[in-house]
Amino acid sequence: MIPFSFDLLHQDTRTQARRGRIHTSRGKIETPIFMPVGTQATVKGLLPEALKEVGAQIILANTYHLFLRPGHQTVQDLGGLHRFMNWDRPILTDSGGFQVFSLGQLRKISEEGVLFQSHLDGSTHLLTPELATGVQEALGADIIMAFDECIAYPSPRDYVQRSTDLSARWARRCKEARREGDGSALFGIVQGGMFPDLRRKSCEDLLEIGFDGYALGGLSVGEEASVMYDVMEATLPHLPHDHPRYVMGVGTPENLIEGISRGVDMFDCVMPTRNARNGVLFTSFGRISIKQARYARDEQPVDPACGCYVCRNYSRAYLRHLYQSGEILASVLNTHHNIHYYLDLMASARSAIEANSFVEFKRDFYHQRATH
């Protein structure tokens, strides 16, 4: 079994953008990378073969949802998550902290963990750091995340400090509960709200515990993009250069470019898939809403600069027709295009970093949007 490791291959000479490679027992991951979200063991609308076609190297699944349905023991008994969903490349599992956060009044946080009511049937469950770790190990994920509390924005400083300290204690319990020798990696999650000193303290606490990688949590929770970028700039320098850095739940193509320029290696977000189902498509010149009447007779592909299967074979007029007709194929084709766009953007960013031309790449990225 190949042990988890990270190689920093190249540092852009004029920005903090990094070119790296993650090694796992199920394959390499070239970074920076975007991870399509397959919350319930499926990236909505795409077969695993289609995911591979568009260049997906790793996907994300979710502990909270799979714990409730079909149950982690069921998945384990059926051969693990990779076999269950027919995906033989790496999988990262979120610990469920964000989903528990989103339950609002249906959960109660204590030192032990989070007592919550299932959104499916109202049943009560206690999710602890030990259980969150055990569920992810039972699923057979290649990268598992420490259990944490995702802090709402805005929140008072005193609450953020208490919550961040609690997440650090939970992180230590996750590390202690981890089963050794299964080849998986455990990432710690930096919290601290929008307070730079609390973010720095969170980094120090996690580094003392020691993890295989480090993530920034608690972003894209309602703050302005400029605030998000400030938090990245205040936090990333305090994380080790020889470990992967992951910003969770982010985001727009602009967020990704800005994150890469500040030294982020990994991203995930439901944005490309959720927008696809709502008829919003990402292109080299910005977003378009395919439901608009002006596309009813438009013979052009979604993006003339895109080489994906959808843009090679279908017109905007056809995609609009599918969407307006409520056809399932609309979601399939729109999702295929959006995921391809995100992953192609990452591939282009990697090439630009290798060539020390990320500044020009970023400038051209924004110029295309401004001039269309």
User: What is the C-level CATH assignment of the largest domain?
Assistant: Alpha Beta
Helix segment tally: 15
Shape type = globular
Query: Which strand order does the major sheet show?
Result: 4-14-13-12-11-10-6-5
Total tally of structural domains:
2
Q: Could you report the average pLDDT, rounded to the nearest whole number?
A: 96
Q: What fraction of residues sit in β-strands?
A: 15-25%
Count of strand segments? 16
Quaternary form: single chain
CATH architecture of the largest domain: Alpha-Beta Barrel
The H-level CATH homologous superfamily of the largest domain, spelled out, is Queuine tRNA-ribosyltransferase-like
CATH topology of the largest domain: TIM Barrel
Please give the largest β-sheet. Answer: 8 strands, parallel
Helical content stands at 40-55%
Distance between the termini: 49 Å
Q: Compute the gyration radius: what is it?
A: 20 Å
Weakly predicted, low-confidence segments: none
Structural class: alpha/beta
